[in-house]
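re: that chain from earlier
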Amino acid sequence: MNLSEEKVFQRGIKIPRLVSLEGKAKGYSFYFWGKDSFEIGSSKDADFFLKDDSIAKIHAKVEIQEDSVIIMDFSQGRTYINGCPVDVQALEENDHVRLGKNVFVFNYRIVEEKNFVHILEDMERFQGWLHSPLPLPQDSPYLEIISGMGEGTIFPLKNREFITIGRNSVNDIKILDTKISRVHCRIFQKDGEYWIEDMGSTNGTFLQGEEVENAQKLENRNHIRIGFTVLCFHLP
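^ sequence. v structure.
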């Protein structure tokens, strides 16, 4: 059976993936689903785009075969599996893959059929963020992801009394970072100024490197870190 087709097991659908342990996409997963080959590189034409100078434009290619997942090096020897350079090799469960400064672990995720549509939506959303960034707002405060998956994505704040940020789809801004809580923090207006407040998150909200314990006023170009993700607050 081809791995690019639905493989329904007793517990759900089995999807091969690379989970980022180190580098620009730390905390995120690349799912190999929907076709038989995927390019990884620093080119925005790659299926999985990494904005990283240590990555070749097309660094590696992953092919989904009937009974295996194959990785091929296109970077002249800068693709490593478990510390060894490779040209072409089948990936095994828990293999560590290094591409430039980025380290991934290869494994399979079992997804219940009822949740599978959310995986597809998230994959499409991330690729949309990476390949079609929004223009910068000219007359609105906005948040910009400056580090983490979706780097370069912007979120206009104009005409919003408050917004919530978190991993759950109920939030105004949803960020799929494994270290971000379901509802992590919120930004709200008070007397014409913008403030940030942690919503009891597990790993905390940090403003300019300091943990936010009470609501804090935001200044232009302040940095906000939640989980592995760093956002910058911009005023027009």
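Residues 113-131 form the longest helix (19 residues).
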